[in-house]
Amino acid sequence: MPKSTAKTGGVTAPEKVPTSSTSAPGARGWRDYALLLALACCWSSTYPLTKIGLGSIPPVTFISARSLVAAAFLLIVLRIHGIRIPTDLKAWKLFAFQQTINSTIPFLVITWAQLYVPASNTVVLASTTPIFAFLITWAITRHEPASLLKLVGAILGLAGTVAIIGLDALSGFGKEIFAEIAILLATVSFACATIFGLRLSDYDPMVVAAGSLLFGGTVLLPVALIVDHPWTLHPTPQALVATVVMGIFSSAFGLMLFYMCLTRLGTLTTNAQGYLRIPIGVALSVILLGESVPSNLALGLVLVMAGVAAMTVPGEAVKRWLRRL
């Protein structure tokens, strides 16, 4: 698989890219987990920023705009660092497929489903991604160890999410069954994307993020022009700021960190950030939107952190700890 290139003087040289062998599970350091936390912070901001943006910008236009803003930002950074985007068809097929299953289709599906499903139920359903990733890894791909401890962690994280959102949210399930099934299918797509994304480990994470976002934004742009007529819209200044901030922070940096985490930590551990996003997203909603603090936040945090720990701690470390007891 071809790698991105960097200019050195007048000569074009291959850009060195970390591969999965550079950070074996037993050699994970605090920097790897710091990347995971940073990813959770980037993607947790999508909850309040999307709510602000969609107040005056339709969904398709909003998603296309934030993707193009993110792609433009990353292309400028790549240009400054002298890193070239691949031009071969094979690379762009990979970027296109990854963006389609990781963003374009699931985001559109979830956006449609939210017309019928309350936000609290959507968060709970979307938090099943780590469980689907575990099942796909265990039953089909087997590209990394799918231990019982990681499954327990995924279940604990989901339980913590339910506790934070509120048990009363569960009473609404089943009323809009087709929309709820659509959200679950979108989370399966997210899970598949974390597994397929490993095929892109030969490319610089910034290159993958830029190529994927450019494809996604360009594909949705004609749809936005036809459906939303963006030139007739009157977005608020807050919505425009939310679009730009979400494009740079959530999409550009978020996707770049996502591919770095996949390379360093693997599929199942990277999915653990999905649970970290819940308490961070709640905190941002309280600060930015003035929403109330959930009554079960403390219990939810304990369950979420226990689940994340179970999904991220290497099996060898657990065995060593058990031997000392």
TrEMBL record:
Keywords: Membrane, Transmembrane, Transmembrane helix. PANTHER family: AMINO-ACID METABOLITE EFFLUX PUMP-RELATED (PTHR32322:SF9), INNER MEMBRANE TRANSPORTER (PTHR32322). Residues 1-25 are annotated as: Disordered. Residues 34-165, 178-311 form the EamA domain. The keyword Transmembrane helix applies. This is DMT family transporter. The lineage of its organism: Bacteria, Pseudomonadati, Pseudomonadota, Alphaproteobacteria, Hyphomicrobiales. Its main location: membrane. SUPFAM superfamilies: Multidrug resistance efflux transporter EmrE.
